Amino acid sequence: MLRKKYIIIAIIIILSAVIAYKNFNKATLSANNFELSKVKKGNLAYEVTATGTINPINTVTVGTQVSGIVETVLADYNDDVKQGQVLALLDSSTLKEHMEKSYASYELALAKESKAKLNYERIKKLYTDKLTSKASLEDAEIEYKESSANVLNAKADYNISKRNFEYATITSPVSGTVISKEIEQGQTVAASFSTPTLFTVAEDLSKMQIEASISEADIGYIKPEMKAIFTVDAYPNDKFDGIIRQVRLSPTEESNVVMYTVIIEIDNSSRKLLPGMTASVVIKAMEALDVLTIPAMALQYKPSKAIKDTMEIKKIEDIGENQDIVYLFENKKVTPRVITKGLSDMTNIEIKEGLSLDDNVIIEAIEPRKR
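RE: above sequence
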């Protein structure tokens, strides 16, 4: 009898546990079971970030086409120079002598041409009077033409030597600021095989540009005339403005990522920005104002099997392009809803269709503590 009594008690305990478990699973869901977020109105912007180097818009390298010893240097770093201003002088004594020698050869050629011309005219008159042969006339004519050719050749040599003499005076081709100086007084400059760089002149430092690198994933958003905001390490609390002027079509590859160069024009009237500075650029590529938004995490939530069993709609078919599913908590039930997505800033996402203001969207489930 005692054994039978224990068996009945055990059966009662097991039945009570089963009933309690079923009642627990059928318990009504509450807002405490989820982290919720209301559908709100707000502004969204998709921003493209990049880094780039600040450079002058036009930089001119000043070199020399002749060799020689630097006699005088008349410009230094950061000097403002005008177009045609003398920057340096090379020793021109040898060049001057060569120019004078070429000029003397030119004068001699002119004298010979004059003599040959007089001789030709005299022979021509004699031939007209039938006092000389035609061969003599032809010889005089050839001699005159040769002397004329020699004049042209001597004049060309003189012009070249004169130009080389002028090259010994190094002048600035543009008005601007000297940002680089590669020579010192007494230095020998050799221009035998290539033109050596003596100075670098930035044409106008009040207007500069950023050469920013943007990945192929973002380059489709970038268009000329878009505004850009950037900062530099030298002035971390200051923000500077720029305008996109050009998207260059020639790509480069960095660590297997295709990058495109975007030129951003900037105003540097304050002269605070210097060539070579690194700029951190933010471009507001797209913007949506006063639109319905939800946290992007809402797209990641997927209900558990237990919650799916309580849902009236188990599955949604035919999700279109640019659509997704979110889950709402309404009337103490979880309900799936198809939404049409708009702009995203990676934190929030625009809702074009499918939700209304103040709808409760599930972000994630909160697991109850187990005893």
